[in-house]
Specification:
Elements lengths: L20 H15 L14 H10 L4 E4 L6 H7 L7 E5 L14 H10 L5 E5 L4 E5 L6 H4 L1 E3 L1 H7 L9 E3 L1 H4 L3 E6 L6 H5 L2 H5 L2 E3 L6 E3 L2 E7 L12 H6 L2 E4 L6 H11 L15 H14 L14 H20 L16 H5 L6 H6 L1 H20 L3 H5 L22 H8 L4 E4 L4 H9 L4 H8 L5 H17 L3 E5 L3 E6 H9 L1
Parallel strand pairs: 1-10, 1-11, 4-7, 7-10
Antiparallel strand pairs: 2-3, 5-6, 8-9, 12-14, 13-14
Helix pairs in contact: 11-12, 11-13, 12-13, 12-16, 16-21, 19-21, 20-21
């Protein structure tokens, strides 16, 4: 491998011209588009909405603010944009502003270039070192972002305060020739936002009013929640006007996209000591539906949103619950049960901002309500209408319609009749696989419904689907349910109502 140049004289000006970071991104982006490469790998659900806008903004050499609710991959997008930079770029060694060897911007560096000539030492800055982030908080100062005059340096070196050599640069100038992201921009104090105006428009900085100005080469990115949600602050109008592109993000719009995100982000492979946990498709759908149902729940503040981190955390908790059972019962199958969903409540409660009605209900109760509603949604997706058939409105298979065709059977009648006869079903998460399967298979008609509409590959997964049927009937108010510490009991709804009246 050829050694890298160590001085200016060894660098080919045609190979490393002093182009701006925006031109660099634009040219690399055009090259990737011509080659048909994927521009933002790992981003799911934005292909037809957000990503075309980002590409257009970068081609236009715009600064960008990503506006959206929490958990909408705003920061992830910002961190992928540096992949459009060159792998490495030369800079004058020791320069705090990482100036290009052929385009110095400070008086001291220009003088150094004249003195050293072709022997001026250079360094190579890799792609990942050209990206920086700052989380905006109310205590961020102008010195942190832009810089400040260092009076001790001025006194020690006997320099005037207007001399650029006494400046201690902040984080933005030190990212010169790179990309800088400010997360949660509205949290930045208005007076600090004012300090960004020159950088966005005139592309320079001014320190404490002294006549010392530096032209900066930066691409600035920002993330923010909608202003009607972020009550701590807002983006000042002049700053918003100077950010050329505002791009709105959104949550996954389809269940498939949501599952792909959770699959890529969740930690479910627990190593060789534990068998790989098998999560059936209907169980994965339930975990995603918890977030979908939260986004239209009357108990949840919709201005805050429900992050995509919720199903990711819920999936990891569910895997941990199965893992715990495998440790206690080494012969158990590595599959979840519907009763295990009660354990994912801690992954739900911390992801919700509740309105007044939700606060009155309590976070735990709202979480359980969303889990139950998700189960009902998935049940309705796979099984016939529980209300119509559960109330006996369908006609027996032995009867003929006017057209002479066979009509549907009341598929839930045998199940509901069994509970109406006074039977109860109590399920615990500590049951062995054999006991769990036998318990559910003992209910007349239950296995037949699952076999017809949600057939599974194993006996334990079939039992889990049977438990989903019972939960779906409960969510449609056809069965009563009592949640105990580690057990769940299903019984006849009418019988429970009569007992309550007595």
């Amino acid at each position: 491998m050829r050694p890298k140049p160590t001085c200016v004289g060894e660098v080919d000006p045609k190979q490393f011209p002093p182009r701006s970071v925006r031109d660099e991104i634009r040219q690399n982006l055009l090259r990737k588009l011509r080659a048909g490469e994927r521009i933002f790998p790992g981003i799911v659900g934005f292909d037809d909405s957000v990503l075309p806008q980002v590409i257009n903004a970068l081609l236009a050499k715009h600064d960008i603010v990503f506006l959206g609710l929490r958990g909408q991959a705003k920061t992830r997008l910002c961190r992928l944009i540096p992949e459009l930079l060159d792998e490495e770029t030369p800079a004058i060694a020791g320069s705090p502003l990482r100036e290009h060897p052929f385009a110095p911007i400070t008086a001291k560096t220009r003088e150094l270039v004249l003195q050293a000539g072709k022997d001026l030492p250079i360094e190579w800055i890799p792609r990942d070192a050209r990206y920086g982030e700052k989380l905006a908080t109310p205590d961020v100062t102008m010195a942190d972002i832009i810089g400040d005059v260092d009076p001790l340096k001025a006194a020690h070196r006997k320099l005037d305060l207007s001399n650029e050599e006494v400046i201690h640069f902040g984080v933005i100038p030190r990212l010169n020739r790179g990309i800088f992201t400010i997360n949660e921009l509205p949290d930045l104090a208005p007076r600090i936002q004012v300090g960004l105006l020159n950088i966005l428009e005139e592309r320079d900085v001014q320190i404490r009013g002294f006549p010392v100005r530096f032209p900066l080469d930066l691409l600035l990115l920002f993330t923010a929640n909608p202003e009607d949600y972020t009550n701590r602050g807002s983006i000042i109008t002049p700053l918003k006007d100077r950010i050329a592109s505002q791009i709105l993000t959104h949550y996954p719009r389809t269940l498939d996209d949501a599952r792909k995100i959770s699959e890529s982000e969740s930690w479910c492979d627990r190593g060789s000591d534990v068998p790989r946990i098998q999560l059936p498709g209907f169980m994965l759908d339930i975990l995603e539906e918890i977030a979908f149902r939260g986004r239209d729940s009357e108990y949840v503040d919709q201005k805050s949103g429900v992050s995509t981190r919720l199903p990711i955390a819920a999936r990891e908790i569910l895997v941990s619950q199965v893992e715990r059972r495998l440790v206690q019962q080494p012969n158990a199958a590595p599959v979840p049960r519907i009763i295990d969903l009660a354990q994912v409540a801690p992954a739900v409660t911390g992801k919700l901002e509740l309105v007044f009605e939700g606060e009155q209900e309590g976070a735990i109760k709202v979480a359980r309500h969303l889990i139950g509603t998700a189960c009902r949604t998935v049940f309705d997706r796979h099984f016939p209408d529980a209300i119509r058939e559960g109330n006996g409105m369908s006609i027996k298979s032995s009867e003929k319609g006017r057209s002479g065709g066979q009509r549907k059977t009341d598929r839930y009648k045998h199940i509901l009749d069994w509970f109406a006869a006074g039977h109860k079903l109590e399920i615990g998460d500590d049951l062995s696989d054999e006991a769990y399967c036998e318990l559910l298979e003992s209910i007349p008609g239950l296995s037949a419904v699952v076999g017809e509409f949600l057939r599974q590959d194993s006996r334990v997964l079939s039992a889990c689907a049977m438990e989903l049927v019972l939960e779906g009937l409960h969510q449609h108010s056809l069965l009563a349910k009592e949640d105990l510490a580690t057990h769940t009991s299903y019984s006849d709804m009418l019988g429970v109502m009569l007992e309550d009246l007595e």
